[in-house]
Amino acid sequence: MTLFGQKLFAAIRGTELGNKLAQQAEAEKAEMQRQIKQGFAALKRAHTRALKGSKPMPALKAQGLISVKACA
User: What residues does each domain of the chain span?
Assistant: First the structure.
């Protein structure tokens, strides 16, 4: 059963486990959203730099957000 399924089942029952799983799922969702926002911000910075003619940030290569070919 997936985490969503476990969360839904336990929340319906209203148990302490249900509350714990709901909090865990919300924390994971918030972390994913934060990482996505950071990724888009980094790509936007790299795009702006590329338009200005400078090379993309090496950190983007390290994070795997852009390929080595794109940086050449």
Answer: 3-71
What local confidence, expressed as pLDDT, does residue 4 receive? 79
Strand blocks (E) in the chain: none
Q: Which residue has the tokens 């957000």?
A: 65
Contacts of 10 (CB under 8 A, 6+ apart): 17, 18, 21, 22
Q: Summarize pLDDT for 15-62 with one digit per residue, the tens.
A: 777 778 778 889 999 999 999 999 888 888 877 877 776 665 666 666
Residue with tokens 């994913």: 32
**Tokens at residue 32, please?**
């994913």
CA gap 41, 65 in Å, rounded: 11
Q: Is the pTM of this model over 0.70?
A: no
Other Cβ atoms within 10 Å of 46 Cβ, number:
21
